[in-house]
Amino acid sequence: MSNPQHLRYSKEHEWLSAADENGVATVGITEFAANALGDVVYAQLPAVGDTVTAGETCGELESTKSVSDLYSPVTGEVVAANQDVTDDPSLVNSAPFEGGWLFKVKITDEPAELLSAAEYDGFTAG
């Protein structure tokens, strides 16, 4: 499994893209997390306008194995939720870094402890 180098990662297995010129970044779960969950059958994502807080739950993913909380890697306001994932949660498994993204957030605070791809690889290998 290969984690894209341009993303940053949380220890809760979420990924974060670099913010665009408006301070908006995309959030999803890693392939490692998607594989651990198994087949995702339901996604409860934060709603547009919600405020999310770094390290706190903001939704959940339900798979054939279990229900897992979704954590926000940053603090900010949700500006988009991926309706495609709501309609077809299996996108989280089939394309976790592409079409299976979960939400977009306008960042107001970003914790220092986000990991690089290499650091995340080391974290998940241990």
Could you provide a short overview of the structure?
The protein has 126 residues and is α+β, with helices and mostly antiparallel strands. It contains four helices and nine strands.
Q: What is the terminal separation in angstroms?
A: 15 Å
Can you give the helix content as a percent range? 10-25%
Strand fraction: 25-35%
Structural class, from secondary structure content?
alpha+beta
Task: Report the sheet with the most strands, covering strand number, pairing sense and barrel closure.
Answer: 6 strands, antiparallel
- State Rg: 13 Å
Number of DSSP helical runs: 4
Question: If you average the pLDDT, what whole number results?
Answer: 96
For the largest beta sheet, what order do the strands appear in spatially? 1-2-3-9-8-5
Describe this structure in words.
20% of the residues lie in helices and 35% in strands. The protein has helices at residues 31-37, 83-87, 91-94, 117-125, and strands at 8-9, 14-16, 24-29, 40-44, 51-52, 57-63, 67-71, 75-81, 103-109. It has a 6-stranded antiparallel sheet. It has a 3-stranded antiparallel sheet with strand order 4-6-7. The protein starts with 7 loop residues before the first strand and ends with a helix.
